[in-house]
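Q: Give me a backbone?
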Amino acid sequence: MATPLLMFHAGADVYHARCSASKGRQPTMTALVIGRMESIVSAAISTLREEGFDAVGVTRDADAVSRISTGTITAMVIGGGVGWGSRRVLRKAAEAHGVTVIQGGLGGRDIVSYVRQQIVPGLRAAGA
């Protein structure tokens, strides 16, 4: 089974989406945010929580893989500062556990605006 994948790029809409939401209900989800800067990760988590999502964050790949392997993560947001080698490892872990992946970058926006404008609608559209 292919991992649901949402990809966002600064200033653009969804380029690729392979996921579907259950009609009539919003599933319970926990989003994992991985980024390299603690301040950005913390702001993203706070914003997601304000928007009604359960969210946790990490700055190390090993911590992300560990969280994913618990089976409690339904979506992972990979920040723009995470390198391509790390992204491959993270996507592989996500695929093994059926976790929706959202990748993106701030593109010059502040983190709160980015999360509200790009990540939150993507999570809702995915039904994650």
